[in-house]
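Researcher: Here's a chain I'd like modeled. Treat it as a single chain, no partners, no ligands.
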Amino acid sequence: MKIRDRLLLAAERQFAEHGTVETTLGQIRDAAGASVGALYHHFPDKAELYRQVWANALADYQRNLWAVVGASVDARAGITGGVVAHLRWVTENQYRAAVLTSARPPGVRESESNQVFLRDVWRWWRTHAAYGTVRDLGFDLVYALWLGPAQEYARHWLGGEITTAPTAVATELAESAWAALRAPAPDESGASR
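Model: Modeled as a single isolated chain. Structure tokens:
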């Protein structure tokens, strides 16, 4: 493994376990088995190292989520599969997930990879909304109803406040997301009355 990758993995774990403020570059360097020069060759300061760790975690998460949502056969499969994929990723990537629950560093939201991901997800959503399969809601509300409960559960689990693994409740949270986001059937909306 290259030294840069070792530094990123060591930083990911240190930031997850100790927090961004409490983690020192010395701890990261020691955990990676890297010299001071190697650390500063790749990252000019702790803020840039943290930004890279956060951006890498986000990109990995988004790749995993989009692999499921983008390949889904219908809206229900995409919504429920997205929740299950989210919770599975959190369970399998606890350090990365913990990093993503901390403050987002400047510039990540505007990154090209994040913009592409958001555009793809929104295009997927708008397609299903146009067919009347899901509710025609704004992006922020879609995000909150789709992944908000799963994210909150995962955050508490990562913090040790909940002991049941996210994957154990994934189906229930996925079905709840579908119930919140699916378009009402004509007989549910009052149109046939």
